[in-house]
Amino acid sequence: MLYVRNLTKIYEGGVVALRDVSFDVPKGQFLAIIGLSGSGKSTLLRCINRLVEPTSGQIVWDDIDITAAPQDELRRIRRRIGMVFQHFNLVHRSSVLTNVLAGRLGYISPAWSLVNRFPRADVEKAYRQLERVGIADKANQRADALSGGQQQRVGVARAMMQDPDLILADEPVASLDPVLAHSIMQYLEQINKQDGVTILCSLHFLDLVHRYADRAIALNEGRLVFDGLPQEIDDARFKEIYGKEAERVG
Amino acid sequence: MSAEPSGRLPRWLRSLLLGAAVVLAVIIYAYGFEVTRVDLEETRSERRQTQLVRILRALARPDIFEFRQAELTVNAPFFMPCPPTPAQLHEPDPLRPYLLVRPGCIEPGGMVTIDGFNFDAGSSGNVFLVPPSNVLLQLGDVIADSSGRFTIRVQLPERSSDSVQTIRVIVRQNVGLPRLTRTATDTWDKIVETVFLALLATTLSTVIAIPLSFLAARNLMIGIRSPLLGISLSILAIPLGAALGTMAARFAATWGPTVAVGIPMNLAGAAVSPLVVYAAARWALPPVETAKPSLLLRAARAVVLVVAAAVALFGLVFLAEFLLQAGRQLAATLGALAFLGDFIFNLGEILQIGLSAGAALVGAGVVVSLTGRLSRLGTQSLPGVALRLAEFVVAAAAGAVLFAGIGAAIGWLYEIADARATLLIPAMFGAVAGLGLALRFGGRGSLPIGLVVYTIARTIFNALRSIEALIMVIVFAVWVGIGPFAGVLALSLHSVASLAKLYSEQVESILPGPLEAITATGATRLQTIVYAVVPQIIPPYISFTMYRWDINVRMSTIIGFAGGGGIGFLLQQNINLLNYRAASAQMLAIAVVVAAMDYLSSYMREKVV
Question: The domain B182-223+467-609: what is its CATH number?
Answer without folding.
Answer: 1.10.3720.10
